Amino acid sequence: MATPPKLVFERSFDPQTGKAVAVAPGLMRVTAPNASPYTFTGTNSFLVGHEQLALIDPGPDDSAHRAALEQAIAGRPVSAIILTHTHRDHSAGAAQLAAELNAPLWFGGAHRLSRPLRPGETNALRRSSDWELQPDRVLRDGETILAGDLELLVHTTPGHCANHLAFGLAGTDTVLTGDHVMGWNSTLVASPDGSMAHYLESLEKLIALPYRRYVPAHGGPIDDGPSYAQALLAHRQERNRQIIAAVEQGARSIPAIVRALYPDVSLPVRRAAAMTVGAQLEYLADLGRLRLRPGLLGLRVSL
């Protein structure tokens, strides 16, 4: 088996927040001013088209970002507002802009969990998700849609959340990957909002598609997307091995595994790590690699 490429994150990205930046022919980026440990330099909104446009991921409900988008649109007709998914840093501004621009909302269906909640379980991303937003059109895997005056190919990529989509620019090697693949960091997968099994399957699906340049919703473009995605896949597989090793060495809870795998990270990163470790534990339990049972202080893990 060939050695996978080394995973290297690119964090030198200059977002030029609030400005329209050309990313590819017929594709402009406007980055929202919502930088955080979870959103990096902010959420990237994209305008697709030339004389007619589509707006992908309008971002947070922020008046400055809305004004920047309207300036970039410059009076051109907007055929649709399209979402990669319904986490609020991507979707909270959608309803108001849809009304102001007289544009329908298209995405992969209302926000939903990747699996039902278990008794006593909570969804850590409940407040980060846009539960009330409904699409005017539900986008389906494999269909081609007219976005402004260009065509996009729709690819379902669940994992980060259940209704996540990626969009290929027809006739090019460029795909908009949303939060599924980002160059600045690995993607948060928090069960039951997301699913590690679905995430890994979607990574393999994306690698097999005929795109080379990945354009994510946070951070800058990835020039060799398939190689980077292969490195992400290997990284997750290595994390699974590390989790098994930590349990073999006596770790019996998510906090204990996080301490073993991420001893020096900041508190916000530790919280994200705990959510992703939980999703990986669920994945490994479904494969029969370990066992999970509820305890008074959270899940208990054993081999």
Task: Characterize the structure shown.
The protein has 303 residues and is α/β, with parallel strands linked by helices. It is 29% helix and 21% strand. The protein has helices spanning 63-73, 88-91, 94-101, 196-208, 225-248, 254-261, 267-286; strands at 21-24, 27-31, 44-49, 53-56, 78-82, 105-107, 137-138, 144-147, 150-156, 165-169, 174-178, 213-216, 291-295, 298-302. It has a 7-stranded mixed beta sheet, covered by helices on one side. Strands 8-9-10-11-12 form a 5-stranded mixed beta sheet, with no helix packed on it. It has a two-stranded antiparallel sheet with strand order 13-14. β1 and β2 form a beta hairpin. α4 packs antiparallel against α5 (225-248) and α5 (225-248) packs across α6 (254-261). It is globular. The model has no long low-confidence stretch (mean pLDDT 95).
Shape: globular
N-to-C span: 28 Å
Class inferred from helices and paired strands: alpha/beta
**Integer average pLDDT:** 95
How are helices and strands ordered from N to C? EEEEHEHHEEEEEEHEHHHEE
Task: Give the amount of beta strand, in percent.
Answer: 15-25%
Largest sheet: 7 strands, mixed
The value of Rg in angstroms is: 19 Å
Helical proportion?
Answer: 25-40%
Number of strands: 14
| DSSP helical segment count | 7
Biggest sheet, spatial arrangement of strands:
1-2-3-4-5-6-7
Low-confidence stretches are none
